[in-house]
Amino acid sequence: MKATSIYRPIFQLSIFHNYHLNDGEELFSSMGDDKKKEQLAAYNWQDFMNITPTAKTMDMLNGQLMVLKSFSNQLMVAVKVTSDDDRSPYVPLSGEQQLIFKLSFTDPLFDNYTNLERTGALFYFSNKEPLLPESHNFNTIHTTNQEATVTNRYLFDGENKGHLLEFLDQENTISTDGILHIYMQGDHTNKSLIINDGRIKNNLPHFKIHFDNQKTTWKYIHQRDGFETETIKEWPLTRFGFIALDKPSDFNSPPGNLDKYKFPNPSPKQIKFIANKPYSEIFI
User: Fold this and answer.
1) Residue of 1, 43, 116, 140 with fewest CB within 10 Å of its CB?
2) pTM, 2 dp
């Protein structure tokens, strides 16, 4: 076998969050390519989470001559290939080999602006269904050609959570919010990294973790003029863009002289749940 320094991607993972990528009511997924590039220019998934390989995975990456690369909107794993065939790993791979990563959220407001109720549950993203002690509904990790966001079907608690945490090194179970678990061969061929003979697939698997943003009823409080009003419907929380509220039909019990007041969009800091309904409080 000839010496080579050629590396080929074996999978990519895009990490999106609608709070950071939507523009007001305009969905990132519905934007044109130019607008998407504009939104992504100010985006970095590492602003709200970390993805860290376990010690065993680091050993595997080194032993299989693989490299892990992080970018502002995705991460990628590449493997050294032979000079004779750029689909053949320099160090052979088998279908049962796996890469395991710890997920942890670093933004304390993540739960406020994310449309999920975790309450201590563990995220688990994988291309292969695990064997678990309790009944569960499992979805394999999304790919970029799926118009879908993360739901509570990716959350596990109770005995299932404890079982999944056994995939991690003991020291990595502390402050763990989730697990990314990628097998060389998954449950579906389109989500496998290699074919049966151990060669890399022609069609590179491109996985996706896409979080949706929280939607809340916006409650405005004007202490000087002594009124409170709230929006008739829930509106999305977004980092960028502006949703204009300027019509009486936008509010329950709108104040008189509505055009006298300005109604800013809320930050994710002030959220209250009343009768299981999320509210954003804005003092004006």
Assistant:
1) 1
2) 0.92
